[in-house]
Amino acid sequence: MSKMSKFREVLIESDNLSLFEEEEMGFKGHISIPKLQKSFFTLISLPEDNFYNTITIALADVEMSKINEAYRLLNRLNANKRSGTYYIIPGNNYGDDAIIIYRDTYTALTNDFDGKLLSLLLLRLLEEIEKGEEYKEIMRLIWA
Questions:
Q1: Are 55 and 42 in contact, with CB atoms under 8 Å apart?
Q2: Read out DSSP for 71-119?
Q3: What pLDDT sits at residue 83?
Q4: Percent of all residues in the chain with a pLDDT value above 70, rounded to a whole number
Q5: Average of pLDDT values for 8-21?
Q6: Does the pLDDT value for residue 88 go beyond 80?
Q7: Closest Cα partner for 33 from 134, 141, 126, 135?
Q8: What's the mean per-residue pLDDT of the chain?
């Protein structure tokens, strides 16, 4: 059974399939965190020929005028992380905002892949965003 099929089964069992749209190599969707009153674009990449399976959550747009300050903040936040990493994805055109993302990886080949473990990783990432001070620090930078 493919990684996509295994994860799809977990989404069906947990009644969360409607949150995602299936793509060629994964799933994408918007996941709401009611406490933050915000929905986050989430991309789950499950390549069959690779053991890196990633969950990427888009946290916020950052203006180019704040990009250096954003890099400094994310470097400081990443220095204290055990898993997961904050990144900045530059805008496509000059003047476009960049995007701050949070990404973590679950390593497993198809035979060893467990959709429930990936689902638990996704839940942990969302809980970390909801409870953590890190998201608040990022938003203070964005709103400043």
A1: yes
A2: HHHHHHHHHT-SS-EEEEE--SSTTPPEEEEEEEEEE--GGG--HHHHH
A3: 84
A4: 97
A5: 92
A6: yes
A7: 126
A8: 90
pLDDT band at 91 (very low <50, low <70, confident <90, very high): confident
Q: How many domains does the chain have?
A: 1
DSSP result, 45-64: E--TT-SEEEEEEEEEEE-G
Residue 2 carries which DSSP code?
-
Neighbours of 49 (CB within 10 A): 7
Helix (H) or strand (E) holding 30: strand 26-33
Q: How confident is the model at residue 34 (pLDDT cuts 50, 70, 90)?
A: confident
CA angle 76, 46, 101 (to 5 degrees): 25
Q: How many CB atoms lie within 10 A of CB 85?
A: 13
79 contacts: CB under 8 Å, gap ≥ 6: none
Structural domain boundaries, residue 88: 3-143
pTM: 0.89
Distances from the Cα of 46 to the Cα of 9, 49, 58, 133, 139, angstroms? 14, 9, 18, 29, 29
Q: Which CATH number fits the domain that encloses residue 110?
A: 3.30.1460.10
Encoded tokens for 139: 């938003």
